[in-house]
Amino acid sequence: MNKGFSPRRFLPIIAWGSHYGKGKFADDVIAAIIVAIMLIPQALAYALVAGLPPETGLYASMFGLTVYALFGTSNTLSVAPVAVISLMTAAALGKLSLDGSEQAVAAAMTLAFLSGGFLLLLGLLRLGFMANFLSHPVISAFITASAIIIGLSQLQHMLGISTSGQNVIELLMSLSQSVSDANGITLGLGTGAILLIVWCKTGLRRGLLALGMNARIATTVSRSGPLLVAIIMASLAFLLRLDQQGVQLLGDVPKGLPALAAPDFSLDLVNSLLGSAVLISIIGFVESISVAQTLAARRRERIDLDQELVGLGASNIAVSFGGGFPITGGFSRSVVNFEAGAATPAAGLFTAILIAVVTLFFTPVLYWLPKVCLAAIILVAVYSLIDFSVFRKSWQYSRADFTAVFITLFLTLVIGVEIGIAAGVLASILIHLYKTSQPHVAVIGRVAGTEHFRNVSRHTVETYANLLSIRIDESLYFANTRYLEELIFKLVADNQKLKHVILMCTAVNEVDMSALETLEKISEALKELHIDLHLSEVKGPIMDKLAGTEFFRELSGNNYLSHNQAVEDLKQGKVHLTSS
Amino acid sequence: MNKGFSPRRFLPIIAWGSHYGKGKFADDVIAAIIVAIMLIPQALAYALVAGLPPETGLYASMFGLTVYALFGTSNTLSVAPVAVISLMTAAALGKLSLDGSEQAVAAAMTLAFLSGGFLLLLGLLRLGFMANFLSHPVISAFITASAIIIGLSQLQHMLGISTSGQNVIELLMSLSQSVSDANGITLGLGTGAILLIVWCKTGLRRGLLALGMNARIATTVSRSGPLLVAIIMASLAFLLRLDQQGVQLLGDVPKGLPALAAPDFSLDLVNSLLGSAVLISIIGFVESISVAQTLAARRRERIDLDQELVGLGASNIAVSFGGGFPITGGFSRSVVNFEAGAATPAAGLFTAILIAVVTLFFTPVLYWLPKVCLAAIILVAVYSLIDFSVFRKSWQYSRADFTAVFITLFLTLVIGVEIGIAAGVLASILIHLYKTSQPHVAVIGRVAGTEHFRNVSRHTVETYANLLSIRIDESLYFANTRYLEELIFKLVADNQKLKHVILMCTAVNEVDMSALETLEKISEALKELHIDLHLSEVKGPIMDKLAGTEFFRELSGNNYLSHNQAVEDLKQGKVHLTSS
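Above: the input entities. Below: the structure tokens describing the complete assembly.
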């Protein structure tokens, strides 16, 4: 991989911008309009999930999309607020004792800056591999649990009441205390909104297709369900003065673009948000590149993981100066952008311009939007994130993976998002170490008349009483060297006639320093017992490393290219092999 | 491994006790005397390292040796105070604000109980594999750094001054402030003691051998250097009233056996010591089994790792009721026990009896022992623990291992033992994940005229323009699936003619759920591009797991037993392979 700095790499817009033409422009504009229709209500709704004023969602979208267009490598990724990151933002802010929405916005800006700074740092240091520590099943379980928490947190708006809580238990207790104050009209509006959005996605689309409408246009119309519902609800609220019936409205949304302002860098705030920012960065990065990679692969395009870190990092830093909260590339929105035909990152830039236009001219209309309408949009969106199939699949496929999945889901639901995801990561790493700490090791013998060696407990093979042949089916590293040592000493203790041990290393892809020292220790112990230690079929790169070591110089036995040759050679030796 | 509970397994003394006879008794008694001579001054000295009154070292030895004899599986391990664990005890107690030595002893007892309880728990749950997370080089670096800190902390007694500090920086600053108060006579005694002990180990032994003395007796005599020096120093102090010259004496050591008392279980104390107890347990366990395994292997004996956890756990719990501090199997003392011919764990029991006799009758003599004498014993002992060769070796062998070693040494020295070892463990795990996150993957082609496939960039091989053969040289799991995905998508994006991809899986020892999902994703993406995905040479156990999955049912291509067969088969197919 090219580690040098080049402006074309750091600013991918230089590369694609120089080939930009009318055809791509038309494609990008159409995609931008479709995405904006979807994004406007989403941006307002996710601000609500994050516990922030609605305009922050619009600001975050505007700045995120614009800056990603300069630095990002995906042509279709839509970088703006997403459900899970908004929930994590709420959890991070929930730990602080904040007084009013102004302080909350200030803290959210700092969080976005820290998260962006961390992503940028990882990108510049080319540490994108850190995202690999999150296993797929753990992420799936985390997203499902987060979606459940978000759904429960939105029930307050569906019922026109007020609840609080960071996990399922707190939310359910809070709900049970105030459910008696529920507002019937609000619940009715909410239920209607959900049904309408779902119908747009399913029935309307089918109907339009049946009427012979072009599939792309039909899909676009069906995707505008949330916007349509928002317009209907706001009109109803205005015409029927529903606020007088106890329906909560969105209220004043400031008109115009945000004033740029530096986030608050006070040490206390930074200290209390840093851990959350790291978690948000990693989850956001993994979510983003998963969709970016999937979409890129479908068009045989490529994304650059380290540059994606730079792109997402820069976007979040920009957002932190524009009064927003942490953002990342969202799944459903990016798919819409892809299917709408976005050709370059410019599509995101055009979406940002449309959002800016809304912010400049249309915020007074938002006053009349009932909060329950946004809650309905969120509920439909997060419902599609809930996927329990990972439980069944992992249970069937591997109990180890199931354990990690279960820990993640359970702790996220009952304690909260941060503990949940941290425990999930830890569990998957420990499980991996556990699995590789007990490698498959087989005592082998020769299949008569061939040069093949097979496990003595599965095949009828030739063995010798004073020769032990062992095949190691795993790389040797610190977590499994003790197991190997114990096994060899056990086999040696059980066989008093032993004169030779051969380790067959075909599947050994790595020998770390711990393993080297263990081999030295085994070699010395065997030497005292007058048993020779031999190696066979060591891979080239491993041999290169071993060749210069004391272990190799002091080895009592030999190093053989083939295991068969080792056995043949020992048969010729002064200690005759005796059949067993 | 037998997971059931059996009294013979849980109490190994039942097994070896039933064959106990006169011959073994004689061997054990001789070994016990030799070890006791070595252990008595050591026990006093390590109590000093732990910052506790000298008698606690005697109590810890007595209880530890006795209980290990009941539960332990090693015939030669000597379970009593050791340098590194005593230092870690000092570090753990140093974090508390303790008032006087009575509170320190109470806290040390709680620490021993927690450490013993954790070891016992791991043993009963058969979680001995946890010790594997400590790599050899990290342990080596940790022991070297600990030895340096212990050495520096003993300089105060060599100089007759008083210093404090948990790391090199604090100790050096403290030393520089009070070095002007150094007592010349103390320094003289200390230097003399060191020279005498070293001479006993080297010159005296050579001399005795030259005089024709039996090697075993010569070694025993040379090992009694510390005791000899202690007797000389105490006599000098008594005869010359050195205490009036500013030489610090050990002072009153209570006579008689300790009163049994339950440790202090107050929640605050337990909370502040729990983390330290876990670290002490793991380091102690690893140090102990390393020596136990080495010594057992030399005699073709075996130890049981899970039962060793039980033995060490029970010993520490016993110690916690007897007024001691955390203990474990020490290296040099166990080697002496081994070389002195200890035949069964009863040797330890006899050593404990000798220590009890000393405690009952000889403590008044200890009053006159100068502290500098113990410091000299400690300095000689820890000097042999310092081993910088691991730096050179790891630097030459692998920069990754060197990094972990360096982090451990550096942080232990400049911050302290707990941060140092925790960082070392974390570093080695992250480095392992990093290494396996970028597996070796080779594009392969057929060596003309053979059935062998080799890396295209190293060998002259046959390839086809519309066929991509990839050999994966690593198990597939969450940390490397993204790498594989990126690589395949890159190779696919670069080759527009591609119709078939075959993954050769000879070195794939594991496919976890993340890897399965990535393979599904790759398979789907390739399907959309009308490229077939095939597998070849999948190992049996992996095949068993894959067979039931949706990935396998939906696979566009086939699963071949041999890679050659795959290529031959595709040549016959409807899409003709075109030579490249």
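Note for the figure: The first strand of chain A starts at residue 79 and ends at 80.
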